[in-house]
From TrEMBL:
It comes from the Bacteria. It comes from Tahibacter soli. It holds the Pfam family HTH_3. This is Helix-turn-helix domain-containing protein. SUPFAM superfamilies: lambda repressor-like DNA-binding domains (SSF47413).
Length: 167
C-alpha cells in the first residue's frame, strides 16, 4: 500500500471517529473539501509534504520518517491520561487526577468542580494528546473511540469551548 493511501485511510478513520465531516477537516487544515475527499479515496496523485503534515496534524496524527535501522527502545513517556490530567490542572490549585479524568471522559458526565479543568484541556491540549487519551481509554476500558470523541464534543459544548475542532 502506498504512503498516500495509508495516510488517506488513517485520516478517514480518525475523522469518522471524531465525528467530523470532510468540510470541517478541510477548514481545520486549510484545504479544500475536494482535497480531503481525494486523499481519503486515494484519488490524489501528489499531496505534498506540507499539506500532508497540516492535514495529519489537524486530526492529531503525525507523519514519521523511519530509516529501518535497529535503534534503542524509545524512552518511556508519561501515559496520555496522566499528561492530559497535568495539562488540565496547570492553572488550578486543586488538580484533576487521571482517574477522575478517565471517569469524566468515559461517561461524558462533568462535575461542576472540574468544568475549568475540562475547558482548559479541550481548548488548549494538542489534538495528538487528546487522540492519545482516546487510544488509552480504548485499550484500558474497551470503550469505542467514537464514543470518547462524542464525549469530548459533548463536554466541549458543556464548557462552551470555542475551539474549531468541537464546532
Amino acid at each position: 500500500m502506498s504512503t498516500i493511501h495509508e495516510l488517506g485511510r488513517a485520516l478517514k478513520t480518525r475523522r469518522t471517529e471524531m465525528g467530523l465531516t470532510q468540510a470541517q477537516v478541510a477548514s481545520l487544515a486549510g484545504l479544500s473539501r475536494q482535497t480531503i475527499n481525494e486523499v481519503e479515496t486515494g484519488a490524489v496523485a501528489d499531496l505534498g509534504l506540507n499539506k500532508a503534515e497540516r492535514l495529519a496534524s489537524a486530526l492529531g496524527l503525525g507523519l514519521q520518517v523511519v530509516d529501518g535501522r535497529v535503534t534503542s527502545p524509545p524512552r518511556r513517556r508519561l501515559a496520555p491520561l496522566a499528561r492530559a490530567a497535568a495539562t488540565a490542572s496547570v492553572s488550578y490549585r486543586k488538580p484533576i487526577t487521571a482517574a477522575r479524568l478517565t471517569k469524566i471522559l468515559a461517561t461524558g458526565m462533568l462535575p461542576t468542580a472540574y468544568e475549568p479543568h475540562l475547558h482548559a484541556l479541550l481548548d488548549d491540549a494538542p489534538v495528538s494528546l487528546l487522540a492519545g487519551v482516546v487510544d488509552q481509554l480504548r485499550e484500558e476500558l474497551r470503550v469505542e473511540r467514537g464514543e470518547i470523541w462524542a464525549n469530548y464534543r459533548e463536554l466541549a459544548r458543556q464548557v462552551k469551548s470555542l475551539r474549531d475542532i468541537w464546532q
